[in-house]
Known about the structure:
The complex is a heterodimer. By secondary structure, chain A is an all-alpha fold. Helices cover 77% and strands 0% of the residues of chain A. Chain A folds into 2 domains: 2-79 and 156-443, ABC transporter involved in vitamin B12 uptake, BtuC (Orthogonal Bundle), CATH 1.10.3470; 81-155. Chain A is built from 19 helices and no strands. In chain A, helix 2 (27-54) runs parallel beside helix 12 (257-299), helix 16 crosses helix 17 (379-407) and helix 17 crosses helix 19 (428-443). Chain B is mostly helical. Chain B has a single domain (2-325), classed as ABC transporter involved in vitamin B12 uptake, BtuC (Orthogonal Bundle), CATH 1.10.3470. Chain B has helices at residues 2-39, 46-67, 77-106, 110-132, 149-156, 166-188, 190-200, 202-207, 212-237, 242-258, 264-282, 286-292, 311-325; strands at residues 145-147, 164-165. Chain B has a two-stranded antiparallel ribbon with strand order 1-2. The longest helix of chain B has 38 residues, at 2-39.
Amino acid sequence: MRKYEDVITAYTIILLLIGIVGIFQSWSLALTIFNFCLISAVMTIGANIQWGYAGLINFGIMGYTALGGLAVVLVNVPPVKEAWSAGGLSIIFCILIIFTIIFSIQYVLKKLKKSKKRNYIIASIIIFGLIILRLISAPAFENIESVDPARTGFLGGLGLPILFSWIIGGFFAAGVAYIIGKVALGLRADYLAIATLLIAEIIVSIIKHEEWLARGVKNVIGLKKPVPYERDLQSSDWFISLVENLYSSKLSLINSLSERQDFLNQLVIDSSSVFVKLCMALLFLSVVILLLIITQKALYSPWGRKMRAIRDNEEAAKAMGKNVVKEHLLIFILGSAVVGIAGAMMVTNDGLFTPGSYRPMRYTFLIWVMVIVGGTGNNFGAILGGFVVWFLWVEAAPIALFIINLCTSHLPETNEIRVHLINSAPYFRFLMIGIGLLVIMRFRPQGILPEKIIKN
Amino acid sequence: MDFINAILVLLNYTIVPALTYGSQLALGAIFVTLIYGILRFANFATGDMMSFGTMFAVLLTYYFQSLGINLGIFPTALITIPFATFMMILYMLSIDKFVFEYYRIKKSPPVQLAMVSVGVMFVTQAIIRIIIGPADRIFLDGQKFILKASEFKEMTGLNEGLTIKSTQAITLVVTMIVVSIMFWFLNRTKTGTSMRAYSDNEDLALLSGIDPKRIVLITWIIAGILATIGGILYGLDKSYRPFVYFNNMLPIFAAAIVGGIGNPFGAFLGGYVIAFAEIFLTYAYKKFFTYILPEALEPNSMMQILSTDYKFAVSFSILVIVLLFRPTGIFKGKTL
């Protein structure tokens, strides 16, 4: 028990803070924060696998998050039959062509020796293939996008349950991470950071602008949630009687029948939203706990020890016969897959897919701040970082407003500086996060919960 | 005649804008490369530092306008350059003092410094948004065009016009002046030489009596000048919006790496490589081909290689290709 003392203290504090939000603001808001904390926690687990275990710096978190979101659309939305008949065949044909290009390049690479001739052949295969692709795909995309563009205009998905998409999201991200890892992992740390940052931007811009795939910036709305809906709850008898029982003491205080009915209705509406979020929270919490158990086991297994050895001294690990390149690729894929799952969870929580909202500030740098603040190489720390930073990110504006009001209370209401400061309260979140990161990096570079090495 | 028209189309819609955009990127890229070469870290606060300097130019432009000071046909922002640069250098030096110096003395790995620069990025963004807000601002005044399309058509009697905005000319002229002074400084003066020596081999440079504090100070001063001027030129040409400046960091990084990071001349050319690639690959060549091809062969599609939505993606793809095949950049930079 002793070695987990600081972990327990830290978690109690942050849960208490969320509880305070519940009491003073509203429970619905507190649960929203809690859900996003859990999603952020999954992302930080992913980033921590790469950075904490293996020292790989991946600034492409945004890309994998978007891929996870894409998976939700492709799995959950029912297929659009008209679009499939308009251009489905051509799309399948295009995919076949892409595979042909890849395999023919591989064939050339294997059969021919390294020479100028080989380079020319490969280049001509790529250019020729791209021209054919363009010729086939352009009319198909146009046809698909013109099918009821206000509502669909894309191929739709498979119409499967949304929970299934979490796994698919992981696989999507893993697949793309494999390609990126093959390309970029040989680079030195800070180049890798820049390269992954830019590659993530390419991924997001493809998702944004290929409207036949997932409607692009036109967004997909109305994704089915894996939990009951508020309006169904509000009309179901068991839920109303449940709320009645829960609040029976409060209700009995009201004498007038109509007033009591109104109050009950209000309570039902409030608690239905809380109930839905609670269900979501349970789902997310089970994912976080599952991942925590797996990562914890992995970290203290021989494999985890090997990863730490590679991180701390690559040369020595190489000399001991460890395949550094392979292990780096593996861990890059694993971490990215976890981030992909988080991306799918986030879209599930929102119920809509908005590619325009994927920005590096929110989905890459903020996640990195979480990992650094929480504690690199420590799974509990990473999750804690997700909680603390997300809490600050959301609650920074109210806190800033409170401080501003306190500091400027001697100024008149109409004072220009005071009004300006109050209007810019939302931007204090950047200030708090930035200063928080700088302070942690300076005085506690290991994070709030530092890495613990257990020696047998 | 058709041939001249076709050339004019290209000149008007691709070459002139690409030269302008390229110059703006080049200034930023030299800034990134200098910091990387001498202070040895990837500065993720690049875009926001440029934005910070520009913010002062915007505010001072408004102030000067209210006082009635202007430069006639030139934008008022040109007078504000020295003041804005001064504020920028002051900010950079204090950031260096309070944040970066500690890690430099401790000889932290470059990754840690890069992470610290992310923190600086957050703080800078917050300060900018608190002072000036996130809104889009246009602070260009004075004469807008040097050459209007209609005037050009009248003058030459051609079908196609050539438009040159005053901001485009100012960008090119100012960039050339700043960059040539900088290269003269780096290559011809003693301080510049010692800076390059420090960048090439720190230990050897220290051994030969070069004062590292002075090198760092001068690097930040040059960086401040480049960042502010680059930012102001971009803001004059397009508009000033903090979020856009943050995003500009990405093509700037691409330019610096394509040119070979740590190599200022490479970064300068890298800016143009990125700008020309972005604009040439996303321009619709339909009009161009209608002029040069005989009527029977006239294209009916847009003749566009990539949609303009992929403008940013183009520069990043170039970066990835360069990293794959020539990791040191086109013009030999530091080895990776």
